Amino acid sequence: MTDISNRLKNETSPYLLQHASNPVDWYPWGAEALKKAETENKPIFLSIGYSACHWCHVMAHESFENAETAKIMNEKFINIKVDREERPDVDAVYMKALVTLTGQGGWPLSMFLTPDQKPYLGGTYFPLSAKYNRPGFSEFMQQAHDLFTGNKDQLDVRSQNILQKISQQNRAGKARDVPHDQLIQGAVEILSDKFDADHGGFGSGMKFPEPMYYNLLLRHWAQTGEGLDILDKSLTAMAEGGLFDQLGGGFHRYSTDRKWRVPHFEKMLYDNGLLAKLFLDMFQATKQDIYQATARETFSWLLREMTSDEGAFYASQDADSEGKEGTYYTWELKEVMDLLGPKHAKVFARAYGLVPRGHIEGRNVLHINESVEKLAEAENIPIFEADHILRKGRETLLQVREKRPKPDRDEKIITAWNGLMITALAQGASVLGDSSYLDSATRCADFIWSKQWDSEKCKLLRVYKDGQSKINGCLDDYAYFLEALVGLYEAGLDSKWIVRAKELANAMIAEFWDEEEGGFFLSGQSGEPLIVKLKNPADEALPSANAVAALALLKLGRLTTEETYSQKTEQTLQTFRADMERSPAGFTGLLSAMSALNLPPAEVVLAGPRDHSAFDEMLKVLHTDYRPNKVVLWNDNETTLLPLAEGRTAEKGEPTVYLCQKGTCHAPVQTGTALNKLLERPQEIRLNIFDEDKKNAQILEQEQANFMGVMGNIFQQVGIQKPPPDKGD
Q1: Whole-angstrom Cα distance, residue 680 to residue 226?
Q2: Taking 80 as the threshold, does the pLDDT of residue 687 lie above it?
Q3: Confidence of residue 713 (pLDDT cuts 50, 70, 90)
């Protein structure tokens, strides 16, 4: 048998390296393995996963480390391991095949292919022997082998049928041209019907963050004033639940229960980038502190635990440590009592929902169980004391947790995911007025540009690891990084980002655009050919790359007034319009782009000295409220990249703002107050974030009555009559 320890050891992917010492004769995806399958006429067993995937680890331990199982695999199949984070194009093709075969997907993805890469049988996790209503892996392998060695015509019909169904999804259907506002309203109504009014989120089982849903709902609220209660209930539940790491910051992957209490503990860079930006948008919309605090804590986790020496961001943290899921993040009640002492532990346990039996194998997941106000009242202590106990308790537990064996970290730097986090940090700098976030975003983007962008070939690479840049970028790398470059320009007003954005946008169009049907393919023209090319317009675990490309090109087109970019947005939306009409809630990313396209942008041109206090004041006003369709430019007197800025100069050398909105251009202004008066007012906010009940209202009323009583006594003592109540009391 080939020395399998050498084959995957040449890879840089942590997921592939985890399998380098398996007795399975693994190959990485590539010409060597595919040619061997054809030469020997053997079926391919394709196993796709990622390093933070819990069930991937389970299947590896049960089956791929088992010598008897490996013997069967090596005799009957060519075995290929793929890190889905490195090769999302390969993953997308065979995940579509699995969904076509079984109606559902997931990881680990276990697919059997003919030697020419056509899928014919598959599933996800298989136990070593039959359980969980699943066949054992050896049994399933035998079925795959029998199918391959049986009737070749039937096998060919089976695999061709799967490919045909996948390919049909690429074809632009005939749209009925339903008005865009009706499509968006239809998606909002579907989401409203799925909304869990008791606990937030959608559905009544496991809860996923699904930021693309909320992005559309927030845009819809900005236009209509409807639906903010869904956002508020859901995002507050996420931030206060076990989904969010209450000690260290950052979001876990999803909740295993309806109440957001017990998560699946892996932390993904992409989730945190998407959610940090969503929470910042929600802070702009509502001004509620919980949203900006959650974003800040997420950035704190990112910069503390997920940042490379070069300033780029790692891919993920594992769910498991010490051989179990969640051990690093969870607590036994006795452990907390020993650390904090009985009195403080009682207050802490009440606040964070700790119970003797725990939530998962006797261990507790910290979540906000009671507000500080209610806690102080119940424990009969001042609010400041309760707050102090909780703050010190969190600090103590975090210090202890830092000494535990940590979950593994996947230190791949993925261009697309870094793009999502750059966008969030740029937004954080603007909304929170914290220049350190812009510094971090800039450092990361400069690193990606220097290491992953090939300026001679105009190609973007996907993965950087151990000093190596490799793997051709997929559409999401181009689209997410393009969005980041545009966001960086608007946050820092440095024109180099526009120069780079145009280079990248032109390369993306040349590499991925479908000249026949419209829309963007996931894999580029210069990449290796797969059995089918996909576009994937629907949102999945990540937002549709077609949707992000459409939004980023629209904004770049508005900033530069170059119609080519905006036209590609229109053509992309038209390509997938029939899909949106058929199932609007499946395409919320594209519907967000459609919303942006059909609303006139607010164009804001700043001129004059960037280092003037009035300039900063006007920028602050611009970023105070949620205005998703604004574009912000600076006439720096040095660049002609942005025609919108031409002729709009500083008056008397002082910072000046030119505002056009709803087809009307206003006279220039030079103060934040004047700009604020011109800006169209955002929607009225009608929500109560903390859902205070009547009892709390009565407490407040009683405190006011007590205050007036005390004041009355004081007035009497100094010989002054008690003042009458205000009218309307």
Answers
A1: 18
A2: no
A3: low
Residue 49, pLDDT above cutoff 50: yes
Q: Give me the half-sphere count of Cα atoms (radius 13 Å) on the Cβ side of residue 577.
A: 19
For 227: left if phi > 0, alpha if psi spans -120 to 50, otherwise beta; the answer is left
User: Which amino acid is residue 536, in one-letter code?
Assistant: N
421-to-268, 269, 270, 315, 683 alpha-carbon distances in Å: 11, 7, 7, 11, 28
Question: Is the residue at 488 inside a domain?
Answer: no
Which residue reads 């690429």 in tokens? 170
Among the candidates 410, 434, 466, a domain finishes at 410
Compute the mean pLDDT over every residue in the chain, rounded to the nearest whole number: 92
pLDDT tens-place string over residues 161-199:
999 999 887 776 788 999 999 999 999 999 999 999 999
DSSP string, 212-249: HHHHHHHHHHHHHS--HHHHHHHHHHHHHSTTB-TTT-
What is the arithmetic mean of pLDDT over 115-125? Answer: 96
Question: In whole angstroms, what is the distance from residue 263 CA to residue 257 CA?
Answer: 8
461 found inside a domain = no
Using an 8 Å Cβ cutoff, are 375 and 278 in contact?
no
630-635 and 602-607 strand pairing = parallel
Label each residue of 398-428 as H, E or C: HHHHHCCCCCCEECCEEHHHHHHHHHHHHHH
Closest CA to 216 of 206, 226, 207: 226
pLDDT tens string 248-283: 999 999 999 999 999 999 999 999 999 999 999 999
Which pLDDT does position 710 carry in this prediction? 52
Q: Clarify whether residues 33 and 159 are in a common domain.
A: yes
Range of the domain at 297: 193-410
- The enclosing domain of 76 has a CATH number of 3.40.30.10
pLDDT, one tens digit per residue, over 124-148 is: 999 999 888 889 999 999 999 999 9
List all residues 6 or more positions away from 168 whose beta carbon is below 8 Å from its beta carbon.
none
Give the mean model confidence (pLDDT) for residues 277-304.
Answer: 98
Structural domain count, the chain = 4
> Could you report the per-residue pLDDT of 85-99, keeping only the tens digit for each?
999 999 999 999 999
Report the C-alpha gap between 700 and 200 in whole angstroms. Answer: 28
**CATH number reported for the structural domain that contains residue 675 in this entry:** 3.40.30
Residue 466 lies in a domain: no
- Give every CB contact of residue 8 below 8 A, 6+ residues apart in sequence: 16, 17, 19, 20, 26, 28, 81
Domain shared by 393 and 331, yes or no: yes
d(CA 65, CA 62) in angstroms, rounded, equals 6
Same domain, 30 and 153: yes
User: Are 210 and 315 contained in the same domain?
Assistant: yes
Which residue in 257, 210, 268, 231 sits closest to 365, CA to CA? 257
> Which of residues 151, 168, 185 is at a domain's end?
168
Query: Distance between CA atoms of 204 and 215, rounded to whole angstroms?
Result: 21
What's the number of CA atoms in the CB half-sphere (13 Å) around residue 390?
A: 25
Is residue 69 one of the residues assigned to a domain? yes
Q: What is the mean pLDDT of residues 561-575?
A: 97
**Are 337 and 268 found together in one domain?**
yes
Claim to verify: residue 200 and residue 303 sit in the same structural domain: yes
Q: How far apart are CA 601 and CA 609, in angstroms?
A: 25
Contact 572, 475 (CB under 8 A): no
pLDDT of 409 over the 80 cut: yes
Please state, in angstroms and rounded to a whole number, the distance separating the CA atoms of residues 394 and 491: 33
User: Above 90 in pLDDT, residue 357?
Assistant: yes
Whole-number pLDDT of residue 173: 76
Whether residues 281 and 342 share a domain: the answer is: yes
pLDDT, tens digit (0-9, with 9 covering 90-100), for 373-400: 999 999 999 999 999 999 999 999 999 9
CA diameter of the chain:
106
**Same domain assignment for residues 670 and 715:** no
